[in-house]
Amino acid sequence: MDPGRQAMINGWKSPRKGDRDITAPRYDSTSRISKPSRLPAPKNSAANAVGRYLTQDQQSEQFVADEDKFVLRQAKKKADIRVRERRAKPIDYLAFNLRFIDSDRDVFDDEDADVEIRVPAPETVLQTLNEAQLKELDEDIRSYLTLESNWRNKEYWTALTTLCADRRQKLKPQGPEGRAVTSVASEVDRILGPKTLEQLEALEKQIKAKLQSNEPIDTDYWEELLKSLLVYKAKAKLKNVCAAIKDARVQLLMARDPEKAAALEATDGFADTLPEAGTSAAKPAPPTVASATTSATTSATSTAPPPGTARFAAAGNEDFSQATKALYDREVARGVGEGEEIFTAEEAVPGMSKPLWADKYRPRKPRYFNRVLMGYEWNKYNQTHYDHDNPPPKVVQGYRFNIFYPDLIDKTKAPTFKIIREHGRRKGESFAPAGKEDTCLIRFIAGPPYEDIAFRIVDREWDYSAKKERGFKSSFDKGILQLHFQFKKIYYRK
């Protein structure tokens, strides 16, 4: 009831017109609806918003960090598999040893029999390698060190870097100065050998203070002693890590076989020599270059080295820089998706001559990791003669080129590509016999220090739409040229 009418009935004074808005809803005390009170906004709402949202640079850093973690996990997983299959490289033994105390490892990758595999100690691995092998190992160690974020793991790889450099230095031919240093090596070993890591760190401080003082001292002697001390520090750190690895293996083995655990505890926990590699460790010869379609369809069943790596069996003038290796390993870690196969149909570049800048920069061939998209085409003929239980042969449906140019001199000019059709054939023309497809060359062109590179591909019309995940993409970012495209589908009408 209207409050004014109720007041008249009760004999109360009716409210004035100005007391109430005539357009307002009538008030009913029995069914009043009230809104909840609004909480005041926090004073630091702007700061909270900044904390919730990342800037573009922070997002990029987070993306790179996540990518590095993924690449590192894949590298560790591959090392474990190669050790189990007796086809490990020296770096795999070093990574396999660390896994027993690695808090960042994926426990789902562990196998019960891993604890019984005895691999050589890190120092034993270094002692058995020559100069070329040590150089390759040093690059592999630095790759792990770059990707690691765990402080204990970084300390392990840093110590191995120091010992690897020391071993390489000892293998080099020595001049008169080197022979003079060798003559006092026994004295240095007598002084530093028995000391613990804490004692070596204290001695390091004393030597540095002595070198910085104005005392009349034999500077050459103390500087050489300091260099040797850093090597012995690395040995001491590695010794502590090896002791932790042995203890962890003993604890794991204790639950399975106490007798084996006791036997392991009585030894140093490592093998004396490198295990003999199995037959699968042999390096097969690189495959011959076939046509684009044949190469794509047979790559999955070939007995070549790991996908995409066969062409790197011979060093030649190819790009093996650290930056390129990091980009290549990251792309390899992405793997091959469903309907994709590794594509390595590289061809000689027609009419290629020595570049004008060859006298100033050493020409190198870029590395790459390419994929070919394979699938079925359900045209009218295939629908009539095949079904899903008996599908038609797969055909090439597109390509994904990833070519690495991290050391490009002029980074303002992106690499380009062009299509080359031989024998005077033009776009849209076909010289292929019935049932076959024409092929052409796609040539990638970049500036110094990279040479041009070419691949043979199926010559069909590209689909430039980007509606799907695997649509057209042409970009050059962070040293990677990416060209992804699919062919237009042909639909047959009645």
Helix/strand/pairing category = alpha+beta
Mean model confidence by pLDDT: 77
Task: Tell me the helix content.
Answer: 40-55%
Multimeric status of the protein: single chain
Bin the strand percentage.
5-15%
Low-confidence stretches: 278-315
Describe the sheet with the most strands. 6 strands, antiparallel
DSSP helical segment count: 15
Radius of gyration: 35 Å
The coarse overall form would be extended
Number of E-type strands? 10
Number of domains: 3
Order of helices and strands: HHHHHHHHHHHHHHEEEHEEEEEEE
Pfam families: Cactin_mid (PF10312), CactinC_cactus (PF09732)
Domain Splicing factor cactin central: 55-241
InterPro entries: Cactin_C, Cactin_central
GO cellular component, one term: spliceosomal complex
